[in-house]
UniProtKB/TrEMBL annotation:
Cellular component aspect of the GO annotation: plasma membrane
Protein task: Essential subunit of the Sec protein translocation channel SecYEG. Clamps together the 2 halves of SecY. May contact the channel plug during translocation.
Stated name of the protein: Protein translocase subunit SecE
Gene: secE
HAMAP family on file: SecE
Organism name: Aureimonas pseudogalii
Membrane topology: Single-pass membrane protein
Single GO molecular function: protein transmembrane transporter activity
Transmembrane parts of this sequence: 34-61
NCBIfam families recorded: secE_bact
Pfam families: SecE
Amino acid sequence: MATKTNPFTFLQQVRSEVGKVSWPTRRETMISTIMVFVMVAFAAAFFFVADQLLGFLVGYVMSAGR
């Protein structure tokens, strides 16, 4: 079982660990954000086209039985 740490010691440890984090620069954050938006746009376009194609194919198959 883990030992309990008092809140003051815990906050000191948290501050020490946060100091070790390598934070991204503003430029890196902007590039990553733009890349996320680009990939979301590509995924949305892909799924839109796939949905339209599958809808057309299902409609074609369903109408062929008439």
